[in-house]
Amino acid sequence: MTTLEQLQEDRAYACDCEIVHDDKVALARAGMPDDNLVTDASDLFKMFGDSTRMRILLALRKSELCVCDLADALGMTISAVSHQLRLLKQAKLVKSRRDGKSAFYSLDDAHVMQIISCGIEHVSGCEPQQ
Predict the structure, then answer these.
(1) Which among 51, 75, 66, 73 has a CA at the least distance from the CA of 106?
(2) Computed from CA positions of residues 92, 98, 99, 103, in that sequence, does the dihedral angle turn out positive or negative?
(3) Distance between CA atoms of residues 79 and 98, nearest Å
(4) Which of 10, 27, 94, 105 could form a disulfide with 88 if both were Cys (CB 3.0 to 4.6 A apart)?
(5) pLDDT-derived band at 4, boundaries 50, 70, 90
(6) For the segment 51-66, what is each residue's pLDDT rounded down to a tens digit?
(7) Which residue, among 123, 59, 50, 115, has the nearest Cα to 87 in the 3D structure?
(8) CA triple 63-64-70, angle to 5 deg
């Protein structure tokens, strides 16, 4: 894309005037959550921004799995899966339970599946499989 084409494209997304619609600005500001909440939500979505973590979450859709099962299902090392599970657990996207020497992981709650389903539906244009 040439510089001229880029300028024309950028201009298509800009106003041709500098009029501020105070009523709409006030409405946007009134609906804005606290900055800390926005930061926390942004951090949450960063967890979904990694394809490895997404694959782990998708693998946990149907049932809980231990680290060894996840590593085998995803073709990864146990160490790599464990590292990602630690991050997902810190973000409260997965939970774990111990059974003897094994640690089993599952999605933390129904919200996690809803977020995943909405994302898949959005990018595919169809209903996600559950």
Answers:
(1) 66
(2) positive
(3) 18
(4) 94
(5) low
(6) 999 999 999 999 999 9
(7) 50
(8) 105
Cα distance between residue 73 and residue 93, in whole Å: 19
Half-sphere exposure of 79 (CA within 13 A, CB side): 0
3-state secondary structure of 95: strand
- Which pair of structure tokens corresponds to residue 54? 């997404």
| Token pair recorded at residue 86 | 């630690």
Query: Tokens standing for 126?
Result: 């169809």
> Quick one: the chain helix, strand, coil %, rounded to 5?
60, 10, 30
- Give yes or no for a contact between 116 and 58, defined as CB atoms under 8 angstroms apart: yes
Structural domains of the chain, with CATH: 3-124 (1.10.10.10)
